[in-house]
Amino acid sequence: MSILVMKFGGTSVANVDRIARAAKRVAVEVAKGHDVIVIVSAMAGETNKLVGWVQETAPLYDAREYDAVTSSGENVTAGLMALRLQEMDIPARSWQGWQVPVMTTSAHGSARIEAIPTENILRKFGEGMRVAVVAGFQGISPEGRITTLGRGGSDTTAVAFAAAFDAVRCDIYTDVDGVYTTDPRICDKARKLDRIAFEEMLELASLGAKVLQTRSVELAMRYKVKLRVLSSFEEQTDEAGTLVCDEEDIMESNAVAGVAYSRDEAKMTLTGVADRPGIAAAIFGPLSEAGVNVDMIVQNISEHGQTDMTFSCPNDQVLRAETALNQAQARGDIRFEELVTDQGVAKVSVVGIGMRSHAGVAAQMFKALAAEGVNIKVITTSEIKISVLIDRKYMELAVQALHDAFGLDKAA
Amino acid sequence: MSILVMKFGGTSVANVDRIARAAKRVAVEVAKGHDVIVIVSAMAGETNKLVGWVQETAPLYDAREYDAVTSSGENVTAGLMALRLQEMDIPARSWQGWQVPVMTTSAHGSARIEAIPTENILRKFGEGMRVAVVAGFQGISPEGRITTLGRGGSDTTAVAFAAAFDAVRCDIYTDVDGVYTTDPRICDKARKLDRIAFEEMLELASLGAKVLQTRSVELAMRYKVKLRVLSSFEEQTDEAGTLVCDEEDIMESNAVAGVAYSRDEAKMTLTGVADRPGIAAAIFGPLSEAGVNVDMIVQNISEHGQTDMTFSCPNDQVLRAETALNQAQARGDIRFEELVTDQGVAKVSVVGIGMRSHAGVAAQMFKALAAEGVNIKVITTSEIKISVLIDRKYMELAVQALHDAFGLDKAA
């Protein structure tokens, strides 16, 4: 018996017709001999509607009740999908999170899956059931309350089930047909990748390519789950979409796999900061407490015992960051001359495991940007990623230039 | 500690604003010192939407999946109501059926409540919680599947909780301000009753006065739950609405408490039926198997070993009834000369526990109808009810005439 996990996102189950179409995809896999675990999201728009009601009812809501309300959309889809499969004479039934049970932490709104007992579902497979339809995004806390895994959490549900049931593969059906070298909306040469390494996908996911929830990729990497992203709107073969897989399953690769961007960034600089041990902690501690997601950090060289400290954060957190820093100054915890904010920047990154073996990727990147007259404001690098902060008006140009420079329109 | 059960129907929680208004009503009772169990229905329209999706997905649906889908509307309202109460600084939390757990039979779509353990909710009350918000209409089967109690089932949930927790009263908030002597839409002299006996309410409920689910009244009668029907759209006092109570709690009563009607009835007559022992069973057995709800039955006196058999059923079951009877004739199970169907009839009934002590109610009823030239086609009686089948065109006239004849516009 081979178990396949198939996950359908909100647009893939947006209405009764789309649920019927998704059910046909499931039937194809059942006919191939798989027992299938289907993970479903809420019908597109439903979760937003529920979240809206919660916010209208209680601006400062209790996260436990938020979870009880917002998890209901997935239950509806799960029941409807099971019914549709039964109509096609495929033995199927639905499971809500608490019925499996999907055991999570008590961190309501962003709970982590701790265990998925497989006995109940395996027994049903043993009794002839061919498809278990499971409501994604939800679980149950040790206290018996309903939890949710955060937006996009159904991806994580799918990967966790694939790991728990040792599935042959986890197919994520979505409204795009795979992972691209960059966003096709701003670069018409963007090319769909047949394969991408977990590490690359992680960097791309956290950089804003919203194909998969970051946590689902981490989980897939840890448990070596073969993860495939493909479109629910096209006829599919076993080779369709993009396979997110272990580095060693990728034979040959470009130095760079993709170019990612993040539009709404802000750059903040503290000038005239006293350069002493512990100063970074004194600055970034209050920012963290204020809920500011600091991304890139650069410290200039010190002169006369003073330095400049630059960091980036999402644009809509600037006010919070300014308040936190001014309060820290008022308390005497830090001292700086000036706080300079630039809200007109964007982040552009190149990502690729090939960087480990290909030298000169950074130089090639900076050269391509310079050739287009794009000024770089901040640079950070990791083993498989180079990111730069640039003026937002050059963002599209930079993405296109880098896509060309690394030959991403051609396969490796 | 006194526990009060309050139930809010679909129109009373139709949107976020109405939920807020209902929460204010709950706050009033909390301020009086009650611990409150709130039972909520789905927001008006939600359950119909879900049922529509199920029927579209699978015309011959699996009742277990139907229940899993349709129960989700109540979960949303329960969470929102708890959130709203918390906003008003009232300690509250929501419970879904499986969390209590509301233990029911496995009769999906029309399950019966078997037990409601009180420990969890009582412990929370002991810890300072003031309101337990429970999703109505749903429970959990011995197999761990979600069940529903049938349309209007939240009334039954409310009464069952009131019985289990020995509540001081069970208040049913709805879109009408109580139980009337008859339908105010067809008789402008209709008067709201302050009190009505369980038995009377049962007859009225089963006759089509859709204020309360019949089963909830039966349950209230069995467990002596004081049941009050009142409007969620008006300011309310402790004496508002109509109290449905034990006969002995009603001091003085009219011979007749109310006039009920049922518009869409059909009268069917089998002529020339061989009058032999077991003939009634031979006729009504097949009708029952075909799902025809036979209401009134009249057998004429026998002549020459033959008789006529007349019965009534809902208009939309006529085709089913005709098919079943013709098939029984074809099989040789029964014999009749002709099947005469009259789809233009209505049923009008007078109901009152006072009939037990007041003589001549039937005569008074027939006289009042005769005075208006209304011909009676079929009559049936019970201890506290007299029903007649008449031409549908006289229905409103008959209701008004009977309301006048029994002086229902004046209190006893």
Automatic annotation (TrEMBL), chains A, B:
Species annotation: Rubellimicrobium aerolatum
**In the Enzyme Commission scheme, what number(s) does this protein have?**
2.7.2.4
Report the InterPro entries cross-referenced here: AceGlu_kinase-like_sf, ACT-like_dom_sf, ACT_Aspartokinase, ACT_dom, AKii-LysC-BS, Asp/Glu/Uridylate_kinase, Asp_kin_monofn, Asp_kinase
Gene3D superfamilies per UniProt? Acetylglutamate kinase-like (3.40.1160.10), VC0802-like (3.30.2130.10)
Q: CDD domains attached here?
A: AAK_AKii-LysC-BS, ACT_AK-LysC-DapG-like_2, ACT_AKii-LysC-BS-like_1
Family recorded in the similarity comment = Belongs to the aspartokinase family.
- SUPFAM superfamilies from the entry? ACT-like, Carbamate kinase-like
Q: What is this protein called?
A: Aspartokinase
Alphabetical keyword list: Amino-acid biosynthesis, ATP-binding, Kinase, Lysine biosynthesis, Nucleotide-binding, Transferase
In which pathway is this protein known to take part? Amino-acid biosynthesis; L-lysine biosynthesis via DAP pathway; (S)-tetrahydrodipicolinate from L-aspartate: step 1/4; Amino-acid biosynthesis; L-methionine biosynthesis via de novo pathway; L-homoserine from L-aspartate: step 1/3; Amino-acid biosynthesis; L-threonine biosynthesis; L-threonine from L-aspartate: step 1/5
Enzyme class at the top of the EC tree: transferase
User: Recorded GO terms, molecular function?
Assistant: aspartate kinase activity
Catalytic function, reaction form: L-aspartate + ATP = 4-phospho-L-aspartate + ADP
| The ACT domain, residue ranges | 268-353
PANTHER family linked to this entry: ASPARTATE KINASE (PTHR21499), ASPARTOKINASE (PTHR21499:SF3)
